[in-house]
Amino acid sequence: MTESITPALDPRRWRALAFIALAQLMVVLDGTIVNIALPSAQADLGISDANRQWVVTAYALSFGGLLLFGGRIADRWGRRPAFITGLIGFAAASALGGAAVNTGMLLAARALQGAFGALLAPAALSLLTVMFTQPKERAKAFGIYGAISGGGAAIGLLLGGLLTEYANWRWTLYVNVIIAVIAVLGAVFEIKEPAGSRNHNRLDIPGIVLAGAGLASLVYGFNKAETDGWGSATTLGFIVASLVLLAAFVVVQSRTAAPLLPLRVVLDRNRGGAYLTIGIAVVGMFGAFLFLTYYLQVVLGYSPLKSGLAFLPMVVGMMAGATQVAVRLLPKVPTKLLMVPGALIAASAMLILTQITVGGSYFTHVLPALLLLGFGMGLVFMPAMNLATHGVRPQDAGVASAMVSTSQQVGGAIGTSLLSTIANSATSNYAKGHAAGVHSAADRTALGLSAMVHGFSVAYWIAGGLLALAALAAGVLINAKPQRGGHGEGENITGGVEDAVPVLAH
């Protein structure tokens, strides 16, 4: 006679989810909250225009470059200790940044934030992976987590505007200390990591160096493309270097006995498709944040706080898509039947935004587009994050989770630089083509605004095309069936077909 040995479910798992989600919100919103405060910080600390971008880039480089390492540390050291350490380190780095007295101190703090964020983000997601193993519960947990991951950037814009306008730019960093203290207390009392899920293999040092250098070079190369152009020696040099380093990383991973990133994690058709879909979707989605912020503030004259409030409908749409629709349908329909329509709905939102004008209204174009974008991305993010960590060995949950964040980080870097370049080029060409009739200062101002909006519109066409490409990637690559049932119903949730471990007892 055979029977399945089922581990008991942790009764505190839902309370633990609240603190895991809070930590993830802190990491995600930090990517945008500082952007709103940057002009004030620049004036206060005397940051030069040349160094201004490093306040954002320092965080992105250390975060993107160390994600896989952070994921493997979480697997080896334990997700709960990694989670708590990441929170404490992130809070300390935020306090250092908030107290910054010069440019160097702020940049160092931002780099430290990124480093501890690279430990915290995969630890948070992998905790969900090993704590929620029954499909229905897992769908609910990932619905909440996915909505926060997608909507956190918009919340960052709101919170950044609120703190900058009514407090001080330094509070955009100090607020992390408050969030982290709450999350640490929750982790100490409510989070318990399942036993036997650690990876005790030795660390793959060559893999760590190659992955870190390759990803950091890729992120930096795309950041330089935005400022120096795609044809600059610096841009091309770093992008080529990243491709060489990442190719070498793949070779090393295929030959080492204990790889940093086991290739089976990404070569699985469904997981690989999920990573690719997330990455492409984020490339397109970043256009909404990047250009709508400028459109609302520069063209429509919104304050930073009002701009942040204007993004809230997107968060509402995302919560509805992820926690109300995707959660209910994931156990009933194939995963791609959520992700493909979701990406196409998000693409339609971009098509609406191509129609924005200088004299336009928030309610005619921006509001419906944000609702559709949020709803569509909720249908993409929640199933994709679930699928990206579904079926991995518990010992690889951290590095599989890190790949989700890596897809988002690389997609964000590419989206920012690619769409900015396209928009700037279209703006410049429009201004040159319509310069003949400009005679007064008022004419020049009007032309400048019209050219800017035209550039945004062109970029939104490209963003819509990229989201359609994400839909195609999901439709072609992903063939996962509905995730029904739970333990003892014929499915080993924590192990895929290639990873399955017999649990037979006589």
TrEMBL record:
Its main location: membrane. The chain crosses the membrane at residues 16-38, 50-70, 82-101, 107-130, 142-163, 169-191, 203-223, 229-252, 273-296, 308-330, 337-356, 362-384, 458-478. It is a multi-pass membrane protein. InterPro entries: EmrB-like (IPR004638), MFS (IPR011701), MFS_dom (IPR020846), MFS_trans_sf (IPR036259), Sugar_transporter_CS (IPR005829). The keyword Transmembrane helix applies. It is found in: Cell membrane. Residues 16-482 form the Major facilitator superfamily (MFS) profile domain. CDD domains: MFS_MMR_MDR_like (cd17321). PROSITE patterns: MFS, SUGAR_TRANSPORT_1. Keywords: Cell membrane, Membrane, Transmembrane, Transmembrane helix, Transport. NCBIfam families: efflux_EmrB. This is MFS transporter. It comes from Catenulispora yoronensis.
